[in-house]
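User: Sequence in, structure out. Go.
Assistant: Echoing your sequence, followed by the structure tokens.
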Amino acid sequence: MTTPVVYWRPGCGFCAALFREIERDGFEVERVNIWEDEAAAAFVRKHNNGNEVVPTVAIGDTVLTNPFLAQIKEVM
């Protein structure tokens, strides 16, 4: 099973809400701060029309923008 990668940035309320869901559920993800990783920021821009919209979640070849945990689990 592929571990979802959550691209996020500090101060993002949507990211915080998703991480609360993830932690409450005990779900495992990899977290990548786009402010500390230029390649990650470029990945997010590529999948969001040039915008740094977070959270952006990659699961294999599927990319979701601002999903709920249930949406991530559906792709798994």
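User: And one key feature?
Assistant: The chain has a mean pLDDT of 96.
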